[in-house]
TrEMBL record:
Site label Cleavage, positions: 182-183
Keyword Phosphoprotein attributed: no
Documented EC number(s): 2.3.1.35, 2.3.1.1
Gene name per UniProt: argJ
Protein name per UniProt: Arginine biosynthesis bifunctional protein ArgJ
Gene3D superfamilies: ArgJ beta chain, C-terminal domain, L-amino peptidase D-ALA esterase/amidase
A single MF term (Gene Ontology): L-glutamate N-acetyltransferase activity, acting on acetyl-L-ornithine as donor
UniProt pathway: Amino-acid biosynthesis; L-arginine biosynthesis; N(2)-acetyl-L-ornithine from L-glutamate: step 1/4; Amino-acid biosynthesis; L-arginine biosynthesis; L-ornithine and N-acetyl-L-glutamate from L-glutamate and N(2)-acetyl-L-ornithine (cyclic): step 1/1
Annotated substrate binding sites: 146, 172, 183, 269, 390, 395
Length: 395
């Protein structure tokens, strides 16, 4: 498996475009991904009981298992918009289907932005009229952004079944990130041939250890969505569970999901540092993941990291709130510096560790020494800028 340059349209048979539909004052704000042929589609969505109209629509598409397009707008979330919002999602779907001669039920619709605002359908119609199969594929990653500071992409290649299989991913997410799987949106394309049921099973499993292990501010969005299209145009033999080909495909998808998740965490609103928490030796992997996510989601830990304060007591306090474990044998390392051994404080040079905490990648490793469970989670520091961004978001 190798990482290569590319766009969301790099896998065979895909195209993409992005335009400025004037949903934002400036910048691209409407994008589309198209497949030459109907593709298997899998998806995972927000667990928030208040979910957006596009989430409702896309859940129905996943049940049918086929799609040929994904359209996404930024600036307006189309969430908490009642029946008018639902009708606008359907109208968007139909306009795309009519323009590109697709089956309407094969068009997935996604939105991100301010909650409680209706989509401006005249602007949507004008924007959709400008979309093309041969437009600006690199622009799609820009068009889906809201408060993000950078685009987030990854492109991979792997030989599977004697054929070169490509997989590309893009995502957005900066605030309202606590998927129990923001808005957090991720779109993945691949030309691999794989059954929809196996694609869904694989994506759902990998979400648990990747996108569901990131947190910026502890809020789960109304619109969180991860979608993957697999159109089979690499012409590989169909990937079957339990085979070498499946292992290679799963490894590709896991890397795409993990890299995109880490990029979201690193681009948290106002963030200056990516925090990676690794928990080892828990009773089981679920406990390890819960503890890791509890640590990285702690406001006290996040502010200490922002201030380069080696206050390991905040980390230990977070551990104790997350899951059962033996309390007598905890080891804790911060930036590779041992600060706790057998649950006993270790002398360390605070000024030296504080300097290491000024780096932009922060590592926290916890060994509970009570089992074989391992897990990781990713987040970011909590800064003054986060408060500023969210205090002024709708103005």
């Amino acid at each position: 498996m190798k990482e290569v340059e590319g766009t969301i349209a790099s896998p065979k048979g895909f195209s993409a475009d992005a335009v400025h539909a004037q949903l934002k004052y400036k910048n691209l704000d409407l994008g589309i991904i198209l497949s030459e042929v109907p593709a298997a589609i899998a998806g995972v969505f927000t667990t928030n009981k208040v979910y957006a109209a596009p989430v409702k629509l896309n859940r129905e598409i996943i049940k049918n298992g086929k799609a040929q397009a994904i359209v996404c707008n930024s600036a307006v979330a189309n969430a908490v918009t009642g029946d008018e919002g639902w009708q606008n999602a359907l109208k968007t779907q139909k306009m795309i289907a009519d323009k590109f001669n697709l089956v309407q039920e094969h068009v997935a619709v996604c939105s991100t932005g301010v909650i409680g605002v209706q989509l401006p359908m005249e602007k949507m119609a004008t924007g959709i009229s400008k979309l093309s199969k041969v437009g600006n594929p690199a622009g799609f990653a820009q068009a889906i952004l809201t408060t993000d500071t950078k685009i987030k992409t990854i492109n991979l290649e792997e030989e599977i079944g004697g054929k070169i299989v490509k997989m590309s991913g893009v995502c957005k997410g900066s605030g309202m990130i606590h998927p129990n799987m923001a808005t957090m949106l991720a779109f993945i394309t691949t030309d691999a041939k794989i059954a929809q049921s196996l694609l869904q099973k694989t994506l759902s499993a990998l979400i648990e250890t990747t996108f569901n292990q990131i947190t910026v501010d502890g809020d789960t969005s109304t619109n969180d969505t991860v979608l993957i299209l697999a159109n089979g145009m690499a012409a590989n033999e169909e990937i079957l569970e339990g085979t070498k080909d499946y292992l290679l495909f799963r490894q590709m998808l896991e890397k795409v999901c993990q890299v995109l998740a880490q990029k979201i965490a690193a681009d948290g609103e106002g963030a200056t540092k990516l925090i990676e928490v690794t928990v080892k030796g828990a009773f089981d992997s679920l406990s390890a993941r819960l503890i890791a996510k509890k640590i990285v989601g702690s406001s006290l830990v996040k502010t200490a990291i922002f201030g380069a304060d080696p206050n390991w007591g905040r980390i230990v306090s977070s551990i104790g709130q997350a899951a059962d474990f033996e309390v007598d044998d905890i080891e804790l390392k911060i930036q590779d510096e041992l600060v706790l051994y057998h649950s006993t404080p270790v002398q360390f040079e605070a000024a030296f560790l504080s300097e290491k905490l000024k780096e932009n990648m922060i590592s926290i490793v916890v060994d509970l020494n009570c089992g074989t469970g391992n897990g990781q989670a990713w987040g970011c520091d909590l800064t003054y800028k986060y408060v500023e961004i969210n205090a002024l978001y709708t103005s």
